[in-house]
């Protein structure tokens, strides 16, 4: 087991009857709240009214920033940071999915800088230790942003989608009511579910060492939960247990518990961020297209046992077969999960993506060096994986 | 999945090269440190010197309270609280196992009361929201106190051993260096390991509902880790991976992650606290004697599937057999683990305990009402379980 530091002070209120605690959680920071949300689905499904009704009567002063994009732009973040400065905001309240929470985190960080511009922080990979407090009301099980130290911000001028991290970006409180994800479209449920799955899988292979079994088994339990509950949530959007399992899986995937003593890798995530940055596609869909190809590219005699273990633990693949055969069956099972069960289209071509930018995307993805994981991937490797996805 | 609140702001520094961060963690609270430890083993194994050398050169003013008992007494706690008041202590630093940390927590709570007496807080079950900060340097994988909100304090005048809980009792930081447990005697390693195992098992049965599988599987992973690594740590006390797995299992068992969405029960713990309160025996040993009898007492057609599931997940019992047969094999496996693998004696008689106080102990254990769990236990049930342990 490697040395590690585990610290996650986020206070999670999980379940149906928790929003009543929101005023008390916000009040400790002040009365001036910046309410951040996306395209307005929270107005249709009533969550906006629920949040407002419990805040306005408590005397909070709300300023709104709406229209956060699915891959939140640095320009939107900067707009929010300017509001924070003008309106003397005490706390940033995100109501939405991962993009909205990421945007709120970017705002919280930028608001504490002199010029209120988030992009230099992102570009220079500044670890954020000072930010306005962020509180999240989650409506989509996917990114884990409700409980992690990261935000992903996109700059569409330069085709860049980059992570911004820092201890100060962990939300001070997260409200996770599975019912708030009932109205999520099937496609978003599928994409969010695969995002969770891949957060764990990206991390899973690095430590094929019995000393890490306990944590590997946690990871397998979370992936099994996604494989089990995602199709149920897609068929029965109001199945509470399905939504609850996916929502808590989302938080567990990135709250640090599954990393303790391991390396945290993110090869697929790094490759996918380029797809979203260039083509603004839905993150989880990009991941689903990449993942089976990534596994296929990694597969050799050395990696087969690890891939086979995933199959036996998560997809019910037989144990007592040759690892290479087991690994191939596992990759088949991952493909089936992505393209049959979750119903996502299987190629980049179907999303209108060509090989035009693959070379530069591959270089970006690995920061000009390489991506770590069960195997180190150079930009040449990454370009080949992109081509396998066409 | 039930509604829950998850909040654990403890900052865990895990591994070999972490003690260097101790001064910074303490400094934020002040310079006056109360150093709490037990019978002096930390002086023999060098941990005392390590801690001192990294604090004294940083200008901390240390006051010591040593001689904390294995089941810490309220009188010792009160002695510590008096020192805190006299010496204007800023932070209580526990260096030791669970008893030492529990004592430090009691001190931290009592120091904030007018009369510095912990017992009224314990007796009246006051939830502690105000206490001096506690920092823990852990030397024994067992109680989980390094990462939970609880302390167990004993009053030997009244034969009471009772939990004191509160959000303010969660350590602000915990230093977990598996090497610090290398010199632990085999018997303590065995008892500590079973304490961890039972923390999870006490909680395991309540929710035999597929909606909780993810968390049940986490629980099974922790129990498997204990079953795997405890005998290795006993045979090879300096096996880092064994000590590391046990230490992190200790923290995971009670840091809230394994409870999320479940009920937290503690039937065996409640029954055992009476044994320790009356006879001052080692907690983990008492638990080991109780657990197989508790399972035997619970076993019927209704509970058999849950007990059988434990066996298949943790002890390799066959799945495709009748639940009642599987459950019996499971209880046999738990017995073997306690009395063969861990080498603990199997009866209360061997510890010099008779049935003299069983009736009153049973009443105390359930607070005059009953103990919850997979089956509700009355004081009459508990007395029968005690008798099975003779």
Architecture overview:
2 copies of one chain form a homodimer. Chain A has 390 residues and is an alpha/beta fold. Chain A has 2 domains: 11-180, Rossmann fold; 185-388, Up-down Bundle (Dehydroquinate synthase-like, alpha domain), CATH 1.20.1090. In chain A, 48% of the residues lie in helices and 13% in strands. In chain A, strands 1-8-5-4-2-3 form a 6-stranded parallel beta sheet, sandwiched between helices. Chain A has a two-stranded antiparallel sheet with strand order 6-7. A two-stranded antiparallel sheet of chain A has the order 9-10. In chain A, β6 (150-155) and β7 (160-165) form a beta hairpin. The two termini of chain A are 39 Å apart. Chain A binds chain B through residues 1-18, 178, 210-211, 213-214, 217-218, 220-222, 224-225, 228, 240-241, 244-245, 248-249, 252, 257, 260-261, and chain B through 1-18, 178, 210-211, 213-214, 217-218, 220-222, 224-225, 228, 240-241, 244-245, 248-249, 252, 257, 260-261. Chains A, B: One of its GO terms (cellular component) is cytosol. Chains A, B: Residues 9-175 form the Alcohol dehydrogenase iron-type/glycerol dehydrogenase GldA domain.
Largest interface, and how many residues on either side? A-B, 41 and 41 residues
Q: What is the share of helical residues of chain A?
A: 40-55%
**Mind summarizing the main beta sheet of chain A?**
6 strands, parallel
Structural class of chain A: alpha/beta
Oligomer: homodimer
Poorly predicted regions of chain A? none
Return the string of H and E elements of chain A: EHEHHEHEHHEEEEHHHHHHHHEEH
Sequence of strands across the biggest β-sheet of chain A: 1-8-5-4-2-3
Task: Please write the CATH class name of the largest domain in chain A.
Answer: Mainly Alpha
Share of residues in strands of chain A: 5-15%
Q: Counting H and I runs of at least 4 residues, what is the number of helices of chain A?
A: 15
| Intertermini distance of chain A | 39 Å
């Amino acid at each position: 087991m490697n040395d590690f530091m585990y610290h996650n002070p986020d206070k999670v209120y999980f379940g149906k009857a928790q929003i009543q605690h929101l005023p008390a959680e916000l009040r400790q920071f002040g009365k001036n709240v910046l309410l951040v949300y996306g395209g307005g689905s929270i107005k249709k499904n009533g969550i906006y009214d629920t949040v407002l009704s419990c805040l306005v009567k408590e005397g909070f002063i709300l300023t709104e920033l709406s229209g956060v994009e699915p891959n939140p732009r640095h320009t939107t973040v900067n707009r929010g940071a300017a509001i924070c400065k003008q309106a003397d905001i005490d706390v940033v309240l995100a109501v939405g999915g991962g993009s909205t929470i990421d945007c709120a985190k970017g705002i919280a960080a930028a608001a504490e800088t002199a010029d209120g511009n988030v992009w230099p922080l992102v570009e220079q990979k500044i670890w954020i230790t000072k930010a306005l407090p962020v509180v999240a009301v989650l409506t989509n099980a996917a990114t884990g942003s409700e409980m992690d130290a990261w935000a992903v911000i996109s700059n569409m001028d330069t085709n860049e989608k980059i992570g911004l991290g820092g201890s100060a970006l962990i939300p001070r409180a997260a409200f996770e009511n599975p019912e708030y994800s009932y109205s999520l479209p099937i496609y978003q449920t599928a994409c969010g579910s695969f995002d969770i799955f891949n957060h764990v899988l990206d991390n899973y292979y690095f430590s094929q060492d019995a000393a890490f079994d306990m944590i590997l088994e946690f990871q397998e339990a979370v992936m099994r939960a996604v494989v089990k509950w995602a199709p149920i949530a897609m068929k029965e959007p109001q199945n509470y247990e399905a939504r609850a399992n996916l929502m808590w899986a989302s938080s567990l995937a990135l709250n640090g518990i599954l990393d303790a003593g391991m390396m945290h890798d993110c090869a697929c995530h790094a490759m996918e961020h380029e797809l979203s940055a260039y083509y603004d596609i839905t993150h989880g869909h990009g991941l689903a297209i990449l993942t089976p190809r990534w596994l296929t590219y990694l597969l050799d005699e050395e990696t087969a046992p690890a891939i086979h273990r995933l199959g036996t633990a998560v997809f019910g693949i037989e144990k007592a077969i040759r690892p290479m055969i087991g690994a191939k069956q596992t990759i088949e099972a991952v493909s089936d999960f992505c393209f049959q069960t979750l119903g996502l289209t299987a190629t980049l071509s179907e999303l209108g993506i060509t090989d035009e930018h693959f070379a530069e995307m591959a270089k970006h993805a690995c920061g000009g060096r390489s991506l770590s994981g069960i195997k180190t991937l150079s930009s040449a490797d990454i370009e080949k994986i992109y081509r396998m996805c066409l």
